[in-house]
Amino acid sequence: CVLSESGRGFCLTRSALITGITGQDGSYLAELLLEKNYDIHGVVRRSSGQRMERLESILPRITLHDGDLLDSGSLLRILEKSNPVEVYNLAAQSFVPASWTQPILTGDVTALGVTRMLEALRHFNPAIRFFQASSSEIFGQALDKKQSEQTALRPRSPYGVAKAYGHFITINYRESYDLFAVSGILFNHESPRRGHEFVSRKVSRGVAAIKLGLQEKLILGNLNAERDWGHARDYVHAMWMMLNQKHPRDYVVATGKKYTVRDLAKIAFACVDLDWERFVEVDPALYRPAEVDALCGDSSSIQSELGWQPDSGFEDLIQEMVLSDLKSLTP
Ligand code: NAP
Ligand code: GDD
Questions:
Q1: CA-CA-CA-CA torsion for 108, 109, 110, 111, nearest 10 degrees?
Q2: Ligand 1 within 6 A of 19 CB?
Q3: Catalytic residue (one of 15, 134, 135, 204)
Q4: Alpha carbons 157 and 149: distance in angstroms, whole number
Q5: How many Å is the Cα radius of gyration of the chain?
Q6: Catalytic, out of 15, 94, 134, 137
Q7: For position 48, what pLDDT does the model report?
């Protein structure tokens, strides 16, 4: 805090609250906002194991609060304690296959959780700016070759349906209550901190383990699926930009290039001079009840209006992930 000319004190430090701070994006966003001198607060849920590894290096510089998107009271209490100017809602049941085995939980957290946070925020302080982590999964079996803010929503999983709800409720609260609430339609983004269950990390860890002689095969599902994969670090930057624009607006955040899972495997094995075809096997048990065949985003709006652009290319991203896993698995 500093003194103004009139002698009245005011605080230069802005406070930001992040739900899902223990996840991939939460950890990168916390680091970005620390660089920008925010006072960082994060929501962590009570669970059997503490999942703090992604936050280890910044733990002394952030404040964590026990809470859950399933529990409205905890959200209101955390808002009161942290008094943020910006809230980033990154928490979700984010693994698509788990949304078929736990559809109700997925709806409760990933859909209704957004409303719980918006309600708490609107009652506590409607001037708080709100970012919702929406997803390209809302487009599902998309009719447009490249999906933009205008593309119709055709979700294909309980997760996609829940994210479509979160997307629309964010827009609805903006229009109903004049909140600065925005929805970032994020296409797939990865990093060495990606959860092990997602295909990019499953491949990078598998390649590293095979190279080190710790694993013989890599079992995958649908090799033909196409995704637009970017780097998580670039995507959290877009989140911050969206909350610091002049007028609230939703944007697609994507690289505009798509690759198949087969390409991903080929590139990852090539990083360690191995031929992917010797090691990859397909198990149809890993196919999804309803697959999203191809996603590729048109992010021209955020590029032209906010000046955002993806810095990392796909091959560099995969190489970074493989090298990181090689390092961590090396005895
Ligand atoms: P992630 O690594 O799976 O992180 C999810 C976070 O949500 C974790 O911190 C988790 O906490 C938390 N969480 C789960 N259930 C919760 C609950 N009931 N209450 C409070 N917190 C809860 O996901 P991510 O990759 O960082 O993605 C961040 C957000 O962007 C998610 O909403 C995801 O759906 C969305 N998104 C991601 C991508 C992508 O490609 N990464 C693309 C589009 C949209 P625990 O550590 O306790 O499990
Ligand atoms: N997870 C996984 N494991 N996916 C596989 C595998 C496998 O062994 N084999 C093939 N795939 C295919 C899936 O069928 C899917 O088409 C594609 O790889 C990507 O799967 P994931 O990495 O699990 O990501 P996702 O696209 O389903 O969902 C991610 O991106 C969404 C944005 O489009 C998640 O991060 C979601 O939270 C996010 O909203």
A1: 40
A2: yes
A3: 135
A4: 20
A5: 20
A6: 137
A7: 62
